[in-house]
Amino acid sequence: MPSSQPILGVVIVAAGNSTRMGSNKIYAEIAGHPMIYHTVRSFETHPLVSNICLVVESSKILEVEELVSKSNFHKVIKVCSGGETRQESVNLGLNHLTPSKLVGIHDGARPCIMHHTITNCIKLATSHGNAIPAIPVVDTIKQSKSNGTILRTIDRSKLWHAQTPQIFEWETIQNAYANNSGEHTDDSSLIESLNIGIRIADGDPRNIKVTTPIDLMLAEYILLNPEKE
After folding, report:
1. Beta carbons within 8 Å of 113's beta carbon, 6+ residues apart
2. What is the DSSP code string of 18-62?
3. Domain extents for the chain?
4. 140, 136, 192: which is closest to 166 by C-alpha?
5. Is the pTM value of this prediction over 0.70?
6. Radius of gyration over alpha carbons of the chain, in Å?
7. What is the pLDDT of residues 5-51, one digit of tens each?
8. CA triple 29-35-39, angle to 5 deg
9. d(C-alpha 113, C-alpha 209), whole Å
10. How far apart are alpha carbons 39 and 117 in whole angstroms?
11. 8-223, what's its fold?
């Protein structure tokens, strides 16, 4: 069990261009606030979070700084500009965090992250050095040939939908980004490339990543109808 003292610094990555949404989803209004407000608030109000860096488009820095100020998000120590890729944006955010025992990296487009999921990951990362939340794959998964016909049905018993925040020890993630030379789909795959085993914490089906307009409606429903954690 982690102590009651803050031990987690968080990079929230919100610098994408939202091409599938048609507009920048991070600032779309959900339940009376921009989406990014809900994402930041979950970490701002978590007792084990020490400091937060928000990574956004350069054109949005002043707007987000104003939102942070009006919302009294005291744990946000920096709003910085992102890079050309998600990895570049994460690395820029890491450079602004105050050193802490653990570092969490979270998608700005996951506004429905609940405290218990953050806590689950912190507990596991405290014991094992890292943790990512994930939920089991429940759909039948097919692999196809190049001509579009089914090649085989994949055993889903060991397949997981990865979520964020993905949490790592400070030195591990800092060293991984300092020595990284390739592209990876998420932060855990970067750590995996160093032959470090990643632990799976219990995720939450509500912790969706908003990608399409339908996702916006679902996220608003979740935020307006919270269940007890």
Report:
1. 39, 42, 43, 106, 164, 165, 204, 207
2. -TTTSS-GGGSEETTEEHHHHHHHHHHT-TTEEEEEEEE-GGGHH
3. 8-223
4. 192
5. yes
6. 18
7. 889 999 999 987 654 444 578 899 999 999 999 999 999 999 999 99
8. 155
9. 10
10. 13
11. Spore Coat Polysaccharide Biosynthesis Protein SpsA; Chain A (3.90.550)
